[in-house]
Amino acid sequence: MGPNGPKTEQLIVPERLERGEPLTEEQAVVLALWNNAAFYEQLVELDLTRADLVQAGLLPNPEFVYYWPAANKPFKYLIDFPIESLWLRPLRMKATAAENERASARLTQLALDLIRDTRQAYADLQLARDRVRVSERAVQLREDILKLAEARLKAGDASELEASTARIDALQARQDLTRTGYEIPVARERLRNLTGLSAVTVELVPDAAVFDPHVGTPLDELVAEAVATRPDAAAADHAARAAVERLRVARLGWVRFLGLLDATSGRVTGHEFSPALRMTVPIFNRNQGGIARAQAELDQLERRKVTVYNQIVQDVRTAHARYQQARAELDLLKNKTRPEVEATIKRARAAFEKGGVTYLLVLETNRQLIDTYAREAQLFADLRRAWAELERSVGRKLSSPGRDSVGSEKPSP
C-alpha cells in the first residue's frame, strides 16, 4: 500500500461501471467481498490460526550438552528429549484445530455481516435517489399550484395572501429538493467504501430492478435453522471445544519428563552410554492457577454459547417482525392510501380551478400526496433493509416459494 491508498490493480471494477451502467445489488455484494479492505484484514486471522496449528504439531528438538575434560575430570556429554511432548502434542493440535475452525466460522459470519451492510447501503442509496425524485415531484406540483394561484389572482378570484402562500410553499419545496440532493453523495460514499471503490472514480448508480420479497418459511423453522447453522453459533462451539483441550493441556502440561542419554569416559570404550530420566516432583506447584484459569475460560465460553443462542433467536425474530411491519404497511399504502390520495388531489385541483375550494384545501391534499410518495420510498428502503437483515440473521439467502425474491413495482415518483 502506497501513500495514496491501496493498489488499484488489486481491485475488481466491472466494465459496465466504467461505462456508466447501473450497479445491481448482487454486483455490489461481490465487489464488497472481493475489494473490502477490512474484510481482507480479517482474513489474516486464518493465517494466524493455521500457523498456530503447524506450530502445535511440531515436536521440540532434542538438546545436546558436552562437558570438556579437565585434570582429574572426565569428559561427558548427554542428549535429552522432553518425552511429555509426545502425549501433549495431540492435545495441543486438537486445541489449535478447534481455534482454526472457530476463526473460519467467525470469518464466514463477518462475510454475512458485510453482505448485510452492503445491501443496506445499497438500499440507502436507492432511498436517497427516490427522495430526490419525490422532492422534484413536490416542486412540480407546487409550481403548478402557484401558476393556478397567480392566474386566479389576475382574474380577481384569489387574494394576494393565497398567491403569496403558494409562492412560499413552492420555495420551500425547492429548499427540500436542495437538501435531499446532498443525501445522494453521502449514501454513495458509504457504498463506495464497503465495495472497496474509494480509490476509483466511477459513478455508483443503483439499477431499477424491482423488489418484492416474501417469506415462505414459518418463523419457528427459520429460528431453528439459524440456531443450527449460523456461523457465529459454530464459532462459539469451536471456541468451547478448544477450551476443553486447553484445560487438558493445563492439567498435564506442567509435568516435565525428560529422557536422557548420558555418556562419559569409562573403562571400556571411553564414552559409555547409559539412560536416565528427569521429571518434575509435584510438591509445591501443580499449575493450580493455570488449571483454574483454563476452567474459568471454559465456563465463560460455555455460557457464551447460550448468549449467542439467545442473540440468534432475537436476531431472527426481530428481523422477521421488521420485515412484516414494512411489508404490511407498504401493501396498505400501495393498495389503499396512495390511490385515495391521488383521487382526492385530482378532485381538489379541479374544484380549485373552478373556484369551488380554497387554496388551503389544495395545499393540504398536495402535502398528503407528497408525504405518501415519501413514505412509500422510505418503506421500500425499510423492506430492503429488513430483508437483508433477515437473510443475515438466518445465515442464507431466502427465496419465496414459486417466485423469485425480487419482482414488483418501484415507488411511483
H/E element order: HHHEEHHHHHEEHH
CATH architecture: Up-down Bundle
End-to-end distance, in Å? Answer: 44 Å
Gyration radius (Cα, Å) is 35 Å
Helix content: 55-70%
Looking at the structure, what is the overall shape? elongated
Using DSSP, what is the number of strands? 4
Backbone structural class: alpha+beta
Number of domains: 1
Task: Estimate the mean pLDDT confidence.
Answer: 86
Family: Belongs to the outer membrane factor (OMF) (TC 1.B.17) family.
GO molecular function: efflux transmembrane transporter activity
Keywords: Coiled coil
Protein name: TolC family protein
Describe the protein.
By secondary structure, the protein is an alpha+beta fold. The chain has one domain: Outer membrane efflux proteins (OEP). The protein has ten helices and four strands. The chain has helices at about 15-20, 25-35, 35-55, 85-155, 160-180, 185-195, 220-230, 230-250, 290-355, 360-395, and strands spanning about 65, 75-80, 255-265, 270-280. A four-stranded antiparallel beta sheet has the order 1-2-3-4. The chain is elongated, with a radius of gyration of 35 Å. It starts with 14 loop residues before the first helix and ends in a 19-residue tail after the last helix. Mean pLDDT is about 85; it is low at about 1-5 and about 400-410.
